[in-house]
Each structure stands twice: as C-alpha cells, then as structure tokens.
Amino acid sequence: MDPCPFVRVTVGNLALKIPVASKPARSVVHPSSSPCFCKIKLSILNLPPQNAVVPCLPPDTQTLDNPATAATFHLSKSDLDRLASKSIFASRLCLKISIYTGRRGTTCGVNSGRLLGRVSVPLDLAGTESKPSVFHNGWVSVGKGPNKGGSAAQTQFHLNVKAEPDPRFVFQFDGEPECSPQVFQIRGNIRQPVFTCKFSFRTSADRTQRSRSLQSEQGSSRSWLSSFGSERERPGKERKGWSITVHDLSGSPVAAASMVTPFVASPGSDRVSRSNPGSWLILRPGDNTWKPWGRLEAWRERGGADGLGYRFELIPDTSGAGIVLAESTISLNKGGKFVLDLGSGSSNRLGPISPGCSPRGSGDFGYGLWPYCMYRGFVMSAKVEGEGRCSKPAVEVSVQHVNCTEDAAAFVALAAAVDLSMDACRLFSQRLRKELCQQSDLVG
C-alpha cells in the first residue's frame, strides 16, 4: 500500500516573559495573577483557528522547558497543490498568532481577553512533503514598545513553528457500512479495493451460530467474543447485536466491530443517554481467535444542537484497565470527524501523551512493552455524515501506526462503528433503514 503525502504544521514551546513595571499601574499585566492564551490561525487555507494556553515565565528566565505542542494543522496533497498553483497566495502563507491576557470563557475567551500583541511567521511549505523544516524557534518581541508602567523592556513571546512530512493511508467506504460495502484505498485519482465489509446481526437467539461462524473463520476451537461477558438483555426500546466484519481481498477476516452493549433508550425518553451508553468492541484476529483491541462507547448528547458523544479506549492484552485515547462530540445534524490525535491541542486530547501499542500481525500485540510503547501524534480520523444522510466514511491513518494489513483493518472497523453509532443513537421515535432492522424488530 502506498500512502498519500500529508504535511503537519505544529506550533509549540509557547511562553511569555512580561517585564515587571517599575511602578504600579492598573494596565500592567502581572504574570502571577493574569492567565494568558493565544489564538493560532493558518492564513489563506480554510482551516479553523486553534487556541492554547501560554505559560508566563519570570523576566530573568534564561532557559525554556516547555516542549508541549500547542496547535497542529494537517495539510493534504490537495492543499499543498492549491498553494503551489497560486504563487500570489503561496508567498503570503503565514501563521498568525494573537496573544491575549484574561481568563477564557465559553468561547475560549478571544472576545473577552485583552490583546497583548500579534506575531506572524511566514511559511514556505515547498519540499516539506519529504523533509522537515523549522520556520521559527526562539523569542520575538510583541506589543507596541515600552510598557506604561515605566519599564523600557518589551514583552517577549517564545514559539517553535515547524512542518514535517506526515504520510497517511486514505481509505473510503464505497457505501454505508450497514450495506456491506467494499473499502477502497485512495491515492490521488487511483482507487484500489483493499477490504470488504460484512454487516450482520448478533443476538441472543443466534449467538451460538455466530460463535460457530467465527470459529470456522479463524480455525479456532473457541470464540473470544462469546466469552466476553454478556449482553444486557433489557425490555423496551433498544438496538442491539449489530456487527461488522472486515475481510481482506482473500476473504480472510482481519478485523471486526461488534456491539456488545445495546443502545437503550433511557427511561421515559427516546434517547441513549451519557449515563447509559451503548458500546462496541473493536476486535482483531490473534492466537486463532478474536482478541479485543479497543472499546467505543457512544451516546446522544443534550444541548442546543444534538451531538453524538463518544469515548474510545485502547484495551491492553492484560487484565489492566483500558487507556482512554479520545472523548469528544460529533454533530448529529452536520456530521464531522472522529479523531485520534495525541500530539495536538485538539479538543479530544486528554493529556500530554496517552499510552498505547500498535497491534502487530502474527498475533503479537506488542503489549509486553505496555505502557512504554505509545501511539504518538496523529493516529487516525474518520469523517462521517449526519443523520439521514448517505454516509461513506473516509478514513485517514498515519503510516507510522500501520505495520500490517490487520493494523489498517482495525481502524477501518473503528470508523464503521463510529458511523453505525450515528444510527444507533437516533431518537427511538425515528425509523431506521431496513438494513439495520431485523424482521422481528418492532422498534425504529
């Protein structure tokens, strides 16, 4: 499989040194009491701005120890080609950072904070598809000169701006997951089939048959799936038993997503609540059976605009607890992206680094090194459509996290589970398409 070229622009190592005024003044920023943050935008390209906290350092600080990434922008080959074809724009491409003081509110504080200054860093991305480039690393003065408090020193802002190659495998479902579509790998104008998907139902009535089917597919004496707890059997409104298996072109199953906790309407309502989410297990073949790789929980968020809330955790091949890699929301109306990105300032990032190990083929999941081997940076994204729209998920997976076919298939199965969760979390007063309903279903 040949990857598509992508470029990752990162902004990090942020810090402020604000001079102390020689005499008190209400307009002077006091670093010990005034939090600072910035708004980061990549001009020309239609990418949403990102926000980040900026730590304040004492004016006499000589060294900087803040390697954290504050923002990340991902540029596809089409973005780069568009810039290159318009030289007037290519020469003007720059990173713009506005620095504020004040606490961030519900809108990240951009309108309520007081502007300290702006920084602009020109970017020339030519050649960054194949080699990294650093555009700025160090201190720069911001503001309009000496502070009003009597200090002749200017505020200093530190940042690191660089671009690096970030090649990815790009996959596209040829239809909605419940319609058992093919999955193509996309590279430029080339579409090559790499997987097929099989959607099916797994209920208490046919669990034994499903178990036998998996045993036949894997050549195993038992099915891991049948031994993983039990489904909640509840009366009333529920959607349960959905399963999708990903096969390679030889017909061998290489990943699966199975609904292990039904999506159940909360008492007195038509919605799946956060307090009682449905869940999927993402499975990979190993040791002649299915093994758990990840767990996806999903629910319907309340609010001004309904959203699909989700939480994804990686499951170690031990008795240890899972590691949460992402928790965020996708618009149920407009759709959006499910993202695993452990190196940016994105909203689904839960910490500096979340540990995990990329599964390997041959049944060796690599968890013997847990938690020392980790997913880092961009891992994957899956674009899905909103409710009532035809959704053919587009999946991007970082090359560094794909060592074999099973690696890519696991991410494809995860993308299918996210897309199917959009349907599983529909209000129970709404009818689902026939592919998602069994003949005995009276719900939907």
Automatic annotation (TrEMBL):
Q: Where are the transmembrane segments?
A: none
Known InterPro entries for this protein? DUF1005 (IPR010410)
Q: Where is this region: Disordered?
A: 208-243
Chain intervals with Basic and acidic residues compositional bias: 230-241
Q: Which Pfam families match?
A: DUF1005
Q: Where is this chain compositionally biased, Low complexity type?
A: 220-229
Q: What is this protein called?
A: Formin-like protein 18
Organism of origin: Malus baccata
